[in-house]
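Researcher: I'm preparing a figure for a lab meeting and need a structural model of a single chain. I don't have an experimental structure, so a prediction will have to do for now. The sequence is pasted below. Please return the structure as tokens so I can convert it later.
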Amino acid sequence: MDSFVREATSVDVAKSLRELREARGISMRTLATKSGLSANALSMIERGKTSPSVSTLYKLADALGVSITAFFGAETEKKQIVFLKSDERTRMPFTRGVFEALGGEQFSGRVEPFMLTLESGSSSGPHNIVHSGHEFVFCLRGQLEYHVEKSVFLLSPGDSLLFASKLQHRWKNPSKNVTNALVVISGFAEGEIPHAMHWKKGE
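Model: Understood. Here is the structure written out token by token.
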């Protein structure tokens, strides 16, 4: 699948997951229990036999007590200024999509920008999402449907949406084409992992 910028560096999710688990001395069975996955499913992911869904990635990050950006490799010292060339950002493929970090894992402030490349039908899951802070969404390509409380917003290229993240929300790509969207979550509470809250309950 093409992402918005193709030169981004791919991440070996299987290797990163295994290293994070082993570094914490957690057995595969224990992690499976904490994340709600079957031991067989977890084994398949660690051996690179299957690609985890976005929901599964956040369940695993939550169970390991890390941000999803930990899958991008060793954590670096937080900076007050982060500049990334197009070929320097990391990308993580998941089922029916690609997640691309845009420097939030390196930044010292409470803001996490990322880009989503979503295949037709890709979604955050059936459950509503609620977390602290604010959420900004900008549609770059395709269409993105956002449900915020009782309102439904259909974003096309150039459209944007900004809302308080304490409002119940969820998203999906309703079109038959690939969608690219820029999402920025800011002002979340200290210690909170907004990404995990954003997708961990969905499938």
